[in-house]
């Protein structure tokens, strides 16, 4: 039995979807625990490429129960679209897909507010995905949120929507100078999705507790990444949830004492999409080359991802805050063909060298990265499945990172497909 959290150890898009899909045939439950349709998790198997935003990445490999936990914020309209896509591919959800009663709902006004707020921030915009994530978590934390269980009682739902839009209409009219909303229109807009989603809404907390008591294996799938965590990330350039391992417990009802593995996923380099500090970002041809070779364009918004060298100071911080005890390295194949590969091993801030990731935005913005150059390799490693096949320089690169972090890589990914993987 294992209870494994899979976490992005950088700024998201590390390849969590690929790895959760790969591991899910050995799991009985696969659980998303935070975030919403801001996530874009890409899976490649057989001849298929799928991008999932809300449905757990365990839906295509094996027969695990796929659970959307209480910590997720769910856009019912987006979820129904995704369900339809999965069904069209010939996969069944009935009996193995479950939505927490206490997960909060993203309503169309959350998306509208997300976009209006970003516009008002102008030069200080966060660069959100515009999926309503921030405003939905604001509703939740300010205790006016609507939960999935509320969709099951239309009278309750309508009265909660009415209460909510009173405040929102005031802001739309007076602050944003936008047309106001009507509860009847919102109810009508939601009607079809409520009918589709109702059969899946249940007490997933109890389901997972029963699974734990029966020694079942559970895979907890993080979205976003550690440096986008609302507490531990590069605030305010973060998302509004807790992608770190603590969030896996609060977002699912699985207690901390049940976790057996915390797997951190990192690419062999770094990317970030949206605004905010990125110490090892490359603004030159090398950054462009990484973007091209790695196909670094957002899976949700299509935006080009910012690219840079691997940042071991930030990665060590991610290992510490999550308690990472196993690592996965993805996109190793993208590093083929470089004479040298740089890794950031310390920072200079105000003239002083440090290996500690700073927490204030002012300090993060002052970081000058210090690099160590490691030898590259000219062999094409894409698709490799055996450790012994890797060129010596690739093995040395991996060993160097492991030594710095004090954690071993148990999986090395050499391509986007499920099969393009080295398991150590
Ligand atoms: P996630 O959000 O963490 O699930 O990651 P995304 O799906 O947003 O982005 C990762 C991208 O890299 C996807 O297009 C994957 O298909 C691709 N990918 C994953 N692992 C590898 C790998 O080892 N090599 C290559 N070349 N691509 C990979
Ligand atoms: P996955 O799960 C990368 C970024 C946005 C923005 C910030 C806040 O695919 O790794 P939000 O819409 O959450 O309010 O945006 O977070 N962001 C992501 N970046 N991968 C993601 O998810 C992301 N989800 C949000 O670009 O900078
Ligand atoms: Mg992604």
Question: What order do the helices and strands come in, and which of them pair?
Answer:
Layout: E1 3-8, H1 16-23, E2 29-32, E3 41-45, E4 48-52, E5 65-68, E6 73-74, H2 76-88, E7 97-100, E8 104-105, H3 108-121, H4 133-141, H5 154-174, H6 183-197, E9 201-202, H7 204-213, E10 218-221, H8 245-250, E11 261-267, E12 270-272, H9 285-293, E13 306-308, E14 310-311, H10 312-322, E15 326-330, E16 340-349, E17 352-354, H11 361-365, E18 368-375, H12 392-405, E19 409-413, E20 421-423
Helix pairs in contact: 2-6, 3-4, 5-6
Bound molecules: guanosine-5'-diphosphate, 6-O-phosphoryl inosine monophosphate and magnesium ion (MG).
Can you offer a commentary on this structure?
The chain is α/β, with parallel strands linked by helices and 424 residues long. It has three domains: 3-100 and 201-262, 3-Layer(aba) Sandwich (Adenylosuccinate Synthetase, Chain A, domain 1), CATH 3.40.440; 104-197, Adenylosuccinate Synthetase, subunit A, domain 2 (Orthogonal Bundle); 266-423, Adenylosuccinate Synthetase, subunit A, domain 3 (Adenylosuccinate Synthetase, Chain A, domain 3, Alpha-Beta Complex), CATH 3.90.170.10. Helices cover 32% and strands 21% of the residues. It is built from twelve helices and 20 strands. The strands form five sheets. The protein has a ten-stranded mixed β-sheet with strand order 9-7-5-2-10-1-11-15-19-20, with helices on both faces. Helix 2 runs parallel beside helix 6, helix 3 crosses helix 4 and helix 5 packs across helix 6 (183-197). It is globular. The structure holds guanosine-5'-diphosphate, 6-O-phosphoryl inosine monophosphate (IMO) and magnesium ion. Guanosine-5'-diphosphate binds at residues 8, 12-18, 40-42, 44, 295, 299, 330-331, 333-334, 413-416. Guanosine-5'-diphosphate (GDP) binds next to helix 1 and strand 3.
């Amino acid at each position: 039995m294992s209870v494994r959290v899979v976490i992005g150890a950088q700024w998201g898009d590390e390849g969590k979807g690929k790895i959760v899909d790969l591991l899910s045939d050995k799991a009985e439950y696969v659980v998303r625990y935070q975030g919403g349709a801001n996530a874009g998790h890409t899976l490649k198997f057989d001849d298929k490429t799928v991008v999932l935003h809300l449905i757990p990445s365990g839906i295509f490999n094996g027969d695990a129960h796929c659970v959307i936990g209480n910590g997720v914020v769910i856009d019912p309209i987006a979820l129904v679209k995704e369900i339809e896509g999965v069904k069209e591919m010939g996969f069944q959800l009935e009996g193995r897909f479950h939505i927490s009663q206490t997960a909060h709902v993203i309503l169309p006004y959350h998306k509208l507010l997300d976009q209006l707020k970003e516009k008002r921030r102008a030069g200080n915009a966060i660069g959100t995905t515009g999926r309503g994530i921030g405003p939905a978590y604001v509703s939740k934390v300010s205790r006016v949120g609507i939960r999935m269980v509320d969709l099951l009682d239309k009278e309750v739902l309508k009265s909660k929507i009415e209460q909510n839009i009173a405040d929102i209409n005031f802001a739309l009219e007076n602050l944003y100078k936008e047309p106001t909303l009507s509860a009847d229109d919102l109810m009508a807009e939601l009607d079809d999705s409520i009918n589709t989603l109702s059969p899946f809404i249940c007490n997933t907390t109890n389901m997972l507790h029963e699974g734990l008591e029966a020694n079942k294996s559970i895979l907890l799938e993080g979205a976003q990444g550690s440096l986008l965590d609302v507490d531990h990330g590069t605030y305010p350039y973060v998302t509004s949830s807790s992608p770190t391992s603590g969030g896996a417990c609060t977002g699912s009802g699985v207690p901390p004492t049940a976790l057996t593995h915390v797997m951190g996923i990192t690419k062999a380099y770094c990317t970030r999409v949206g605004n905010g500090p990125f110490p090892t970002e490359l603004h030159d041809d090398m950054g462009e080359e990484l973007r091209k070779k790695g196909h670094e364009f957002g899976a949700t918004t299509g935006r080009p991802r910012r690219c840079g060298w691997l940042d071991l100071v930030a990665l060590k911080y991610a290992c510490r805050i999550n308690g990472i005890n196993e690592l996965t390295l993805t996109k190793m194949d993208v590093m083929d063909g470089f004479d040298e590969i740089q890794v950031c091993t310390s920072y200079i801030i105000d003239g002083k060298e440090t290996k500690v990731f700073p927490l204030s935005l002012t300090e993060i913005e002052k970081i000058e990265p210090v690099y160590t150059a490691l030898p590259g390799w000219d062999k094409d490693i894409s698709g490799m499945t055996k450790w012994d096949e890797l060129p010596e320089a690739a093995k040395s690169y991996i060993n160097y990172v492991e030594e710095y972090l004090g954690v071993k890589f148990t999986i090395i990914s050499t391509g986007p497909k499920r099969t393009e993987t080295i398991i150590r």
